[in-house]
Amino acid sequence: MQQQTYAIGIAGLGAIGGAVARKLAAGIPGLRLDAVAVRDRAKGEAWLAANRIEAAIVPLADLAVRCDVVVECLPSARFAEIADPVIAAGKIFVPLSVGMLLGHGDLIERARASGARILVPTGALIGLDAVRAAAEGRIYSVRMVTRKPPEGLAGAPYLVANNISLAGLTAPLKVFEGSARDGAKGFPANVNVAAALSLAGIGPDRTRLEIWADPGIARNMHAIEVDAESARFAMSIENIPSADNPRTGQITGLSVIALLRRLGAPLVVGS
To answer: What is the pTM assigned to this prediction?
Structure first.
């Protein structure tokens, strides 16, 4: 039986979208980069040419028409522009702006009705399979602590709204403590991992989150603690920031590729 080949569309060619495009263009069995959508067509054409990648450049909504899978790598404010048509078309939607799912709960019901699937990549976190397994039983608490260099948090809406300046910071500063839902709202470009963790476990309101700006570190760091009836565990990860965007870890794009590989893989490891 011949393996199905999935046509992949990428919305946005920033740090993550570009990394995914390069991996797909290098060749992965069962996956084909079909099209990309970019804000600046001329810039997108130049990027594709410089990376020797062949892919159509199409309007954002057209990705849902021609592609089997659409990977969303856009600023969070544009999330609905791609999520809505992909879900309506019954396609596979891979969002990187995971925090936006918390405010668009209707997408899940709409996906059920249209036959679409929403696949959330692990991103820059660790252990979502263990959290998901624990959630089949009872989880008592989930706590996450994120530490980032100050430049990785600069400009976050929560910092702006609360007049919190990170300029000249010489010691670690806790800039947020609260629910994953509130953290995702206040730091939409920084803690999509917290949203993913909450969706895998006990939800965005019960998942607790701390965010620290730490001038003494050069990597994005995430630590989670889970207390459940089946297990108690703690995990941590240090991600090397992308050269193109310090808010994003290099492993995020790789996690998207790992997810896409599973679509047609004859062997899948991990729950």
So the answer is: 0.92
